[in-house]
Write a structure and sequence with these properties.
heterodimer, A: alpha+beta, Nucleotidyltransferase, domain 5, Dna Ligase, domain 1, 9-stranded mixed β-sheet, 6-stranded mixed β-sheet, globular, B: alpha+beta, 2 domains, 5-stranded antiparallel β-sheet, 12 helices, 20 strands, 31% helix
């Protein structure tokens, strides 16, 4: 890159490595670097990858981080000391939860612990009813009483490690009491993070809203610290560009907006992957994609349909601990290179979800691992090159892997190779199941989709998965191991706004709804501006509807540029149609309730065009080795370096393509083609 | 048929479970009454054409166990040849293999290549089906005719067309036909989804192959279940429990079990139980069978694929005309919600003598069924609602019992306060856990809850059917008993809560119907707590301190229950 280069950067903090990608939008050139992640201090690796990249700080004009700080804090339960404030009489709701259980025939399961102690759940005298009317006013005296109780709970805890979550009954209909408490608590407890339920998740159902606002409060001080620490480190590097954090919805937010509502960052570290996957899917001219991001311990599967991401509004950190926020629809399963193979009581082979991690790691790492992993099986089948793992930075011990598989196989009356084959098949089956969850279960036929495979281990398994699913096309991005960081660098700005309503299709006030949309849109535009987006955003509008009497709703999009009486009528028709399509019946003439109005504002960023690989190189194989494939057994395969493959190159499998951060087996009969952008497509 | 690899088998097993889950999600999303969409009081199943259950999801065990009988009865009574594509059968007859009258099954045959391959079905609690009490939970019923509209297996949809005469009968006999219509359509709609998904599997695998694979799964579950039973020492184990009264007479009704473990088989012999009660605490045979299965399944591996292969090693023996096998026209509405968990607790108590490390102490075991009805002052519409609360579960040898849980026979959710008040004219004044209601022990029983509701309408008619308000959930191995439950009333202007017997002269404190309350009256529902496990003296001081700190026991409770001076 030359001195005048201006790059946009993405950083992905993974479990093992922190990846950095810088894209020069003008030339399409790409610079990457990697540094081992440090769990206790994620910022250290961020500083190091930037330094390692060798880029002059002034060349970076925008930086986007994917962070797992919020996720890890929740999973490891290392967050703030939280006090929960709620309507008097309902202090125990977070512990009562929903009464149901994860397994229907088991005494072993115990209820998940909320992120706040029960003694810290404090009631305040006030009450709003189901119509949003105040029936017990929030008196000054009650607030003073509350302050004394909160103070007693906070005593002995550092201000910067403490947080207060507020969830009052029916606040989504009338936020007045929550807003007054917010101001009161902020002034009474300066420095303590405060989260307010109707701001974080304006939804009905007190447990779900309460659980969400507690999660927000629990991670808020950590996120604030993280943001400060990143800010200081970037300053120390001489980086003065604006920077942002990936949100769970696949967009990104300025650091200050992000730390204000960290509940939106729970999939921050994972949503970059699907953005990156979609980018390469677009390059390969594919609209319908299933993305598989497989690393060392887990695998994230996502769907892009008609060139669009899909979203969900509920996520569970643990079964029974819901978080309500917009999330890119990703299904994460415990399937990665380090996933352990074991035999269950009934004699079935299982793979995962537990992982040997990086330490001690698979048997073949030779670091004291004792359990057979997916990586060991891949090595035994010749699908990994023991001399070129991580681009040769690490040597693998094939003998250990084979011995472990022989032992596992003896319990199943299988040879070592057959056992390895079974382990791979089972791992692929687990991923196939995750694919079914996001496709077949929603009525989508996976055979209509292209599989975009990335992450260190994704490309390795893609061929097996498509054969299993009857899919026909694989897309392998450039630098598959860096796809998440690349995705972060590309992400758009995105703000989602919702407001709970209580309208019915009979006797509704259309003007009121139109006004509500206008208010939400204005708020969304303001927030985008605060996040640093100055151009004209794209606005998406929808209404969550259900038949009067039902309790769950569906989002119906409003087409066209604005909201009008006609578009509302059209939306009712669309709801009937959608109900028919989803459930096989509709109830024409039934009153439709409108539960929420939703506005999403998207600030599109410019998508770079990556520089094409040189064409007309000499794609001669570097070596050849025996690799096992299901249909052919061991066959001799030419082994290529991806760097050697020019644009427009193609070959028919079997073959192996190796690059520093991944390995791509081309199964017998599959056709590989490198396009002019360097993206690999494999047709099964 | 060639051998089927285990990978394919587990894929098929998962796919069958997923179809059942999807049925449940569709019902949750489209149904009308809170007992469906918040409560999830239903179960979803897939059967082969022989009448074996080959798939189920994690919903209510009681209906899962009884589905086996309800589906087979339907096939036998109507005959396989009477089914045509597009048919839907409804069935709630407690004397024909159902659990109790509110539990309705809808069943749809799935045709593949011109033949019935199997059935998709679900059983769900329809909240109002007529009878003497609004909400169809008549706690003082003495015969089935007071419990609502009884439907033997009949087609409500025939070859895709509504059987209008049957619909007219159903909707004319339910107090809230619009809600019934919405709920029944949610049930039937979910069958279409399941049918489509199952056909997708059939096209992928072929009918013969899928039959063979599901047969293998049935055998696999049976084999695993037998292995688990083999690990239980052979012997005869006895246990008993009583329903505190039957709602009509103030007398306990006893359930007695002799459980025989013989190698890889279990015989649950209930023949020493009391004769059929006058009031509705009688269990149908299928409830007793489902509870027996559920007890065994709770004590064995959680990983066994759930299908009717699991039931094969279990024999259930009852005497017709007894509390565990009601005979026509005996009432049974409380048998499914209240007696069921008692029966299951008795199974676990018997087996605790053989496998103490797997057992749990008794749970609160009451659904705290609370029914109410009236005209909503805002809409002028008549409504009814079936409301439930969770009780404390028993402690195990490894952890404290969960608090405020749906009893073991169901897997229902509570109705959020914000949903309840949005639909019905009540104001909730509190919804809390009850300190000291968990039985003391090395591991403490789960806590019951307390809910106080105030009437906001001129009138609301209420009914209730609870248990363990005079009796207690027992502890195991020295563990103490759980706190009693109760339902109480405070008339406007009163200063204290009283029992309904005191205030209204009902026969039973816990089982009554059609009590008229007025604006400003309050109802307090206390759900019972679970029993403790192991001697309270063995509870660690850290655990006692934690319980004190969190308010799960009071300082007085610490002294009385644990001899611990805070």
């Amino acid at each position: 890159m030359n001195a005048n280069t201006r790059v946009r950067c993405g950083i992905d903090t993974g479990g093992t490595f922190t990846d950095f990608v810088a894209v020069d939008e003008a030339s399409g050139e790409l610079v990457a670097s990697k540094w081992p992640s440090s769990h206790d201090n994620p910022v250290e690796a961020i500083v190091n990858v930037v330094k390692e990249s060798g880029l002059p700080p002034e060349s970076i004009y925008f930086l986007i981080l994917g962070t797992t700080v919020a996720t890890n804090a929740l999973i490891q339960r290392r967050g703030a000391y939280v006090v929960y404030v709620t309507t008097e009489g309902f202090e125990d709701v977070l512990y009562i939860q929903r009464m149901n259980r994860r397994y229907h025939y088991s005494y072993e399961w115990t209820k998940p612990l909320p992120f706040v102690e029960m003694r810290n759940c404090v009631g305040v005298r006030e009450r709003i009813d189901a119509k949003g009317q105040v029936v017990v006013p929030l008196e000054r005296e009650s607030m003073e009483q509350l302050a004394r109780e909160v103070e007693a709970r906070l005593e002995g805890h550092r201000v910067e490690d403490s947080a207060i979550a507020v969830c009052l009954l029916f606040s989504y209909l009338n936020p007045d009491h929550e807003l007054r408490l917010k101001e009161f608590l902020q002034s009474r407890f300066p420095g303590v993070a405060v989260s307010i339920s109707h701001e974080v998740a304006p939804i009905w159902r007190e447990y779900e809203r309460g659980s969400t606002v507690v999660a927000d409060a629990f991670v808020k001080p950590l996120l604030q610290r993280y943001v400060n620490s990143v800010r200081e480190s970037l300053d120390s590097l001489g980086l003065s560009c604006p920077w942002a954090i990936m949100k769970s919805n696949g967009g990104h937010a300025s650091a200050s907006a992000a730390e204000g509502q960290p509940v939106n960052l729970i999939l921050s570290g994972q949503s970059g992957g699907i953005i990156g996957g979609k980018y390469f899917g677009d390059l390969a001219e594919q609209q319908d994609l299933i993305t598989v991001d497989m690393g060392g311990t887990s695998c994230d599967v996502g769907v892009v349909q008609g060139g669009k991401l899909s979203y969900i509004t509920n996520y569970e950190i643990e079964w029974g601990l819901p978080i309500s926020a917009p999330f890119v629809d990703l299904t994460a399963i415990g399937a990665g290179g380090g996933s352990v193979a074991w035999i269950d009581k009934g004699g079935f082979l299982r793979v995962g979800p537990q992982s040997a991690g990086a330490m001690p790691g698979p048997l073949c790492y030779g670091r004291g691992g004792t359990e057979v992993t997916v990586t060991d099986a891949n090595l035994t089948l010749g699908r990994l090159n023991p001399e070129y793992f991580l681009g040769g930075k690490m040597k693998l011990e094939a003998t250990r892997a084979r011995e472990g598989l022989a032992k596992l196989g003896s319990e199943l009356s299988l040879s070592a190779v057959e056992a390895a084959q079974a382990v791979i098949d089972m791992a692929n089956e687990n991923m196939a199941n995750a694919i079914r969850l996001v496709s077949i279960e929603r009525g989508l036929d996976p055979r209509d989709f292209s599989l975009v495979a990335f992450g260190g281990a994704g490309p390795l398994h893609a061929g097996g998965i498509v054969e299993k699913m009857g899919m026909t096309r694989i897309v392998i991005p450039l630098y598959p191991g860096l796809c998440s960081a690349f995705g972060a660098a590309l992400a758009d700005f995105q703000v989602d706004k919702v407001w709970s309503t209580n309208y019915r299709s009979d006797g509704m006030d259309g003007d009121l709804i139109i006004e509500q949309f206008r208010d939400l849109e204005a708020a969304a535009r303001d927030e985008l501006r605060e996040e640093g987006f100055s151009a004209v955003p794209e606005i998406l509008r929808s209404i969550s509807m259900r038949y009067a009497g039902q309790n769950y709703e569906h989002d119906v999009s409003l087409e066209g540029g604005g909201v009008s009486a006609e578009s509302l009528q059209q939306a009712f028709g669309e709801f009937h149609r959608l109900h028919e399509q989803l459930y096989g019946y509709s109830i024409s003439g039934e009153v439709i309730e409108m539960i929420r109005v939703n506005v999403t504002a998207v600030g599109r960023t410019r998508k770079p065009r990556l520089r094409a690989p040189p064409s007309g190189g000499d794609p001669r194989p570097r070596q050849s080795r025996e690799v096992f494939f299901d249909r052919s057994g061991f066959v001799s395969c030419p082994v290529y370096r991806r760097d050697d493959l020019p644009g427009q190159f193609s070959l028919v499998g079997p073959a192996m393509i190796e690059e520093a951060d991944s390995t791509i087996p081309v199964h017998p009969g599959h056709t590989l083609r490198v396009d002019r952008n360097g993206v690999i497509s494999i047709l099964a | 048929m060639e051998t089927i690899d285990t990978v394919t088998l587990s894929v098929i097993n998962n796919a069958l479970i997923n179809i059942c889950r999807e049925m449940g999600t569709a019902m949750m999303r489209t149904s009308y009454s809170p007992i469906f969409n918040e409560g999830l009081d239903f179960s979803c199943v897939i059967f082969n054409r022989r009448g074996d259950m080959i798939g189920q999801a994690e919903f209510c065990p009681t209906m899962l166990g009884s589905a086996q009988y309800a589906v087979n009865w339907t096939i036998e009574e109507l005959g396989l040849e009477s089914f045509e594509p597009g048919d839907v059968v409804v069935h709630n007859d407690p004397y024909r293999g159902q659990c109790h009258m509110p539990e309705h099954m809808v069943l749809k045959p799935v045709f593949f290549e011109g033949q019935i391959w199997g059935f998709v079905a679900n059983i769900a609690h329809v909240g109002e089906i007529g009878g003497m009490a609004p909400g169809s939970f008549a706690a003082d019923a003495t015969e089935v005719y007071q419990e609502g509209l009884r439907l033997p297996p009949v087609k409500v949809i025939s070859r895709g067309e509504y059987v209008k005469d049957v619909w007219k009968i159903i909707l004319s006999n339910h107090r809230t036909p619009k809600t019934s219509w919405g709920d029944l359509h949610a049930m039937i709609g979910s069958l279409s989804i399941a049918e489509t998904r199952l056909l997708g599997m059939l096209e992928r695998y072929g009918g013969l192959f899928l039959t063979a694979a599901s047969d293998r799964l049935l055998d696999y579950s049976e084999r695993w279940m037998r292995e688990e039973i083999r690990e239980i020492p052979n012997g005869e184990y006895h246990a008993s429990d009583c329903m505190e009264d039957d709602g009509v007479t103030d007398q306990p009704v006893w359930i007695r079990l002799k459980l025989v473990v013989r190698d890889d088989e279990v015989i649950a012999d209930w023949t020493q139980s009391d004769p059929q009660a006058r009031g509705p605490v009688n269990a149908t045979f299928v409830v007793t069978a489902a509870a027996s299965y559920s007890g065994l399944l709770h004590l064995t591996s959680n990983d066994i694929p759930r299908n009717s292969g699991c039931y094969r090693p279990i024999r259930v023996v009852t005497k017709p005309g007894s509390v565990v096998n009601v005979r026509h026209p005996g009432p049974s509405v409380g048998g499914n919600t209240e007696t069921h968990p008692h029966i299951q607790n008795v199974v676990v108590a018997a087996l605790s003598q053989a496998i103490p490390e797997r057992a749990a102490a008794a749970e609160g075991a009451s659904g705290c069924n609370f029914l109410f009805a009236g005209v909503h002052p805002d809409t002028g519409e008549y409504y009814t609602n079936y409301h439930i609360d969770g009780s404390g579960w028993g402690a195990t040898g490894f952890h404290d019992g969960n608090s405020a849980m749906c009893p073991e026979n169901g897997n229902c959710r509570n109705t959020p306060v914000e949903v309840l008040e949005n639909k019905f004219p009540w104001r909730t004044l509190e919804y809390r856990l009850r300190s000291d209601s968990g039985g003391p022990g090395r591991f403490r029983g789960g806590l019951g809850s307390s809910r106080i509701l105030r009437v906001l309408a001129p009138e609301i008619t209420v009914s209730a059917l609870m248990d363990r308000t005079k009796t207690h959930a027992w502890g195991l191995f020295g563990g103490g008993k759980g706190g009693r439950g109760g339902i109480f009333v405070k008339k406007k202007g009163d200063t204290q809560f009283r029992t309904f017997s005191e205030a209204f002269g009902t026969v039973s404190d816990s089982k009554f119907t059609r009590v008229l309350l007025n604006e400003g009256d309050e109802v307090m529902i206390h759900s019972p707590g679970g029993g403790g496990y192991g001697p309270p003296a063995e509870r660690s001081p850290e655990a006692i301190e934690r319980d004190l700190r969190q308010g799960w026991i009071s300082p007085d409770g610490a002294r009385e229950l644990y001899g611990y001076d805070p």
